[in-house]
Design goal:
Layout (H helix, E strand, L loop, with lengths): L13 E4 L8 H10 L2 E8 L2 E9 L14 E2 L3 E6 L4 E2 L5 E8 L26 E10 L3
Parallel strand pairs: 1-2
Antiparallel strand pairs: 2-3, 3-4, 5-6, 5-7, 7-8
Length: about 140
């Protein structure tokens, strides 16, 4: 008889979701309450794999039903394309603009001339990408 591959039990400690907006249902709350794992909600498009992240830890009963996409990860900026500019200010709704190291190198986009640079504290050169996703920066 072969020895088991692991001598100690394995435990689920982290769960990551991405792709579609996550909805925290009763079944999800119950599951995370039982296992005590942390849920990471990630946002990113095909052209910019991971852009934002939100960590949901602690009591799942306290988690919002519809968690936000989180905050930009290191090296990324996120803005909303308004009728006049790209804004990172709360309260705006529009197409999401991402900028930074996660945007695919050399990515060409037909309406790139319409973009206004995002405010940036970085000194490096980075690419911008206008997604087709709509978001509202919460107030």
């Amino acid at each position: 008889m072969a020895a088991p591959a692991f001598s100690e039990p394995l435990y689920l400690t982290d769960v990551t979701t991405a792709g579609e907006p996550v909805k925290i249902t009763g079944a999800i709350r119950s599951f995370f309450r039982r296992i005590g794992a942390v849920l990471y909600n990630k946002y990113g498009s095909t052209e910019a794999q991971e852009v934002t992240s939100l960590e949901l830890a602690g009591d799942p009963e306290q988690w919002p039903d519809l968690p936000s996409a989180g905050v930009p990860i290191a090296g990324m900026e996120v803005g909303i394309l308004t009728s006049k500019r790209v804004s990172s200010d709360p309260g705006f709704e529009g197409r999401i603009v991402v900028k930074g190291c996660q945007v695919a190198m050399g990515y060409m986009q037909p309406d790139a001339d319409d973009l206004v640079p995002l405010p940036s504290a970085s000194t490096g050169v980075s690419d911008e990408y206008l997604t087709d996703d709509i978001r509202r920066h919460p107030p």
